[in-house]
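Q: Could you fold this chain for me?
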Amino acid sequence: MVFWGGCALLAAAALLFWGCPAKEQPLSPAAATFRQDMRETIGKLSQVLVEPVCRNDAAACEQAIAAIYPEAPRDTLHFPFHLGVMNLQGILIYTIPPVKNIGDDYSQYQAVRDALRAQRIKNVRLFAPNGRELFLILAPLKKKEQMVGLLVLRLEPSQVKKKWGIDEQEFLDLNLN
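A: Sure. Below is the predicted structure, expressed as structure tokens.
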């Protein structure tokens, strides 16, 4: 009897030590809206980009994106984010708006390495070489549960605040998975 009591006590202690998963804090209405908008956007883009990314086909990426966001390549002023697509090695294969560094290897950047390794959506803040603060959302592109690349959404913090009403800390704390 003492043995079973000791086992029960040990099990209770283990539960307390490792605990049950912590409950996520309730989201503000603004954060919930942002999360829903980003999940929908990531879902739509992921669905059409997987095949072009598997082929490293920038033209097919553009056609796929234009099919769901016709304004994207032309109206970057009102489009809420810049978009990049990387293959599994972290090579940039397509962007909106177009940039001169297509083909550059971003696998040496910590945020890209973390996103490739975790195979989960990561939201990070970084500073451009000119010191400008940026928000990035890095989402895995998967084909049949196999990761084939990354979708990168770049947002301006001021636009995130203006459009969705969330600040830097809320953005960083938000779980988009």
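A (continued): The chain has six helices and five strands.
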